[in-house]
Specification:
alpha+beta; six-stranded mixed beta sheet; 114 residues
Length: 114
């Protein structure tokens, strides 16, 4: 069932430098909850610290919101300081313990209108 869900609902946002993949956000949609689950955020070490992960995450979150998702969730290790700063800067908040022993972070994708 999980493989079928990934095949049906997988999303990727990629950054390329020529023929080299330098950054990736992989996620899937939990359609029953209108929620994006971010399963992987990766940037090549030599491209780290350049804001690439932030840009990729914003693209992934914006796309999910425009596609009808109302929230996004991910799991992250408490020891991953840079990742936690990234996610908190994007509006993710602590939502408790995850299934893997990591912390679950969640954010709303609903935008308020002025």
């Amino acid at each position: 069932g999980y493989a079928e869900k990934l095949a049906r609902s997988a999303r990727r946002v990629e950054a390329w430098d020529g023929t080299m993949l330098v950054g990736l956000v992989a996620s899937y949609v939990n359609a029953d909850a209108a929620e994006l689950f971010v399963s992987n955020v990766s940037v090549l070490e030599e491209r780290s610290g350049q804001g690439l992960a932030t840009r990729l995450m914003r693209l992934a979150l914006d796309d999910a919101g425009q596609s009808g998702c109302t929230s996004a969730r991910l799991e992250v290790s408490e020891e991953a300081a840079a990742a936690n700063r990234l996610y908190k800067g994007l509006g993710f908040e602590d939502a408790g313990s995850g299934t893997t022993g990591n912390r679950t972070l969640k954010t709303s994708l609903l935008r308020s209108t002025p």
